[in-house]
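Hey, resending since the last one bounced:
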Amino acid sequence: MLTTSEYLHNQLKQFFGFDAFKGQQEEVIRHLMEGNDAFVLMPTGGGKSLCYQLPALLMPGVAIIISPLIALMKNQVDAIRGFVIEKEGIAHFLNSSLNKAQIQEVREDLLSGQTKLLYVAPESLTKEENINFLRQLTISFYAVDEAHCISEWGHDFRPEYRRIYPIVQEIGKAPVIALTATATPKVQNDIQRNLGMLDARVFKTSFNRSNLYYEIRTKANTEREIIKFIKNNQGKSGIIYCLSRKKVEDVAQLLVVNGIKALPYHAGLDAATRAGNQDKFLMEDVDVIVATIAFGMGIDKPDVRFVIHYDIPKSLESYYQETGRSGRDGGEGQCIAFYSYKDIQKLEKFMQGKPVSEQEIGKQLLMETVSYSESSLCRRKVLLNYFGEEYTQENCGSCDNCLFPKKQFDGKEDVALVLELLSTMKEQFKSEHIANILAGVNNSIIKSYNHHNHELFGAGKSKGVRFWMAVIRQSLIHHLLEKDIEKYGLISSTAAGRAFLENPQTIMITEDREFTDSDEDDDVSTPGHSKSASAGDEALLAMLRDLRQSVSKRLKLPPFVIFNDPSLEDMSIQYPVTLDELKNCQGVGEGKAKKFGKEFVELISKYVDENEIDRPMDFVVKSVVNKSAIKVHIINGIDRKLPFEDIADSKGIELDDILNELEAIVSSGTKINIDYYIRQTIDDDKVDDIYEYFRTEAESDSLKEASDELGKGYSEEEIRLVRIKFLAEMGN
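The structure tokens again:
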């Protein structure tokens, strides 16, 4: 007679073709089949699905699998049907994508006892008619997949998940297995409490994905960097995540123009297009899917070789979940994220109008993302620490910070100063508040607590806020400080921290990395931004700057009106020798190429010949002609003299998006006239002052420099509008 273990191994081989279980899979399955609740924490690719699929096939009755991802349901149902070929109805899903006839077919298979797994969206589970129907069935167990959706502190909170427990009680009691790939200790507790399974056995696998490489890059020249990366990884499957649907469409289009097989995937596409694009990715008809961060790419593709975040996610859970889609087969997985603090500010702006508690949670999750991005510590160490796991190796050898480490220093006195400050305070405060006191930042919040009169106010003024934030973050990782999640991130000393203050020891600290503010639409080079450093031909760049200077004097125009710095830097990389090639350089476009380009391409052509330069013709990034229908819509609206707010509303975008598009339009050489709108919104005196500044004083088109020079009476929006007018009139 077979032992339980032998029986399970036989069934595993029979249904799934595997010779052995992974990690704790067998333990979880046995525990569940014995009628017990289980809470499973496994990283993406760890084999969570098998923990409920195999017992569902073996136990009497039907397993109810509650999943938020409609796309994933079809995938998993198809996969199960593939394993059990003789029974088409072995697995079904019940969600809003089915018509009445399909729903009836599902119900008949369930009543006949043929179906062993029923995938249900939480919204479908809450419908009274479905509850009444499911009460007629024998339920083997309930599986709550993506269980982090229960918690407001999770990265994908779904209010419907809060109702699962009472509905399960109503349908009929059975064991519950909750599964997630991402849960901080706080989220874990929320899940167990909300599902009434505080006594459940917890199966926790290490969150460390040793095959993944993590890297954060400055968000400068992002689109060129992405195209270059993909071309260096020719034929490999990858996912690119963007913050908005518009950016998804733009990036997908840009990749296609540059010879990369890519498709978009976001909630704005109709269901058939979405399903078709997903299938093409799974079937390897396309190499790259570009998707919104908000959309969970619930796909079980084992050989995704890279995940790129065009925009930084809202939380480390999202980041971990999304990067976890690469290298699920244990092979190579490169995770590249582009980071700019401007993206964080944009995400904070999106939270405005939400309940205060929701805003507080959202901001705290964002600050954790900032800490991770700006930290110079091993990325694995920071990431695993966030999920309550200790990573003891000093150098993982597979992240940018470990491969290119920053120098460390003994932070004994600095850590002691932070701990001393905390010991003198009756109340708890957030990290930023503590850093501001030590750096001597005299803002309104500091004053409201009278902390500008604290004896340690400004004690570390020479080192600045960034330095003190780094010290605090690393003290948290060393467990000298702790953060109270329930109180939105207030920090306090631990017992180890208090012992350290009594007897300070050597503690090595690394300063945070610095990220320059960067260009949002870097393929068209928004005015006011430039790359932090040129990767091009320095000798040619110097010659191009000299030529720009002489053209500027001859035409009596500021140099940046001719071509801005990113455009010249791009010319020094691409070596364009015709006006057609010049058009493809960053921020040039047809108008500028025709108006100013002739002398520049002649200079470059001569330089290329004299120096026998081998031009990188295979890597000229082609821009998308008429990049977006929104541009045409905006230009048409301006021709009709519509208020910008009306143009924005008609496309469901922000005024800020209109200004971004207009900056791109004028900087690439298209002439537009926005005088009608400027007259309606800005005083004539202000317009004259800003225009005169750009005409006679400005050394660059930098918005920050203009704002500093003009002073507080001029808003950023006013300066941007007049700068658009100036560039349209003078440069085009």
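The radius of gyration is 29 Å.

Sorry for the duplicate.
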